[in-house]
Amino acid sequence: MQKLRSKLYALNLILERKQIKMLETSQSKQLKDQEKIIAKIERERTKKIKRYQEKTAQNIKNLEREEKGKKVVEYKKKPKSRGKEFQKLLVLIQKKRRLECADENWYCKCYTCDNIRHWKWMHWWHFISRAKKNTARLDINIHSQCPNCNAFHYGRPIEYKEQFIKDYGVEKYVLLLEASKQEIDKNYYNIERIEAYAKTTKEIIKKLLALQT
After folding, report:
1. Which residues of the chain, if any, have pLDDT below 70?
2. pLDDT (tens digit per residue) in 55-84
3. Could you tell me which residues come within 8 angstroms of residue 205 by beta carbon, excluding any fewer than 6 positions away?
4. Do 54 and 86 share a structural domain?
5. Which of 7, 106, 150, 167 is most buried, by CB atoms within 10 Å?
6. Which domain holds residue 72?
């Protein structure tokens, strides 16, 4: 009886240590995520201040040139980056997919487990990496996933594949893989096309959010 008690005590200690470790890991990850968000906001703020200062300096120079009777130099805006605009588009598509995956009460079921959360607290997961532009924006490639599966289990690719084949069939799974391997024409993803698609996605999100009120 004493041995059984000591074993149970030892087991409880191990479980407690594991729980503490998991809690510490989760807290440290949250802190890192918060630090990343703060750093990103600070970088964007610094960029805006720098652009404003550049524009102000150019306007002052133009006033001086006008006084001297010289030609005014127009302030040139920095051209938009296709890569950055595409990443912004993906964020919009991911938000749209979470809303589409939600039920009438706006709760989503994780694609790889039975976890259910409000759509705002769900992550999203690309079955084929978002680095593959051919398939990055396809709805069939994006599904809602709980933070546990996404962050701590690397998306559970095996369970994801099984669920995907169950929902869409083997043929679409093969087609998606083949599409991701194809080379894409760089001119296809120009700024105009990306902005047009982003505008359409924003309109869909607006309509979906309007249903919540």
Report:
1. 1-34, 72-78, 185-188, 213
2. 788 777 777 777 777 776 665 666 777 888
3. 92, 95, 96, 99
4. no
5. 150
6. 1-78
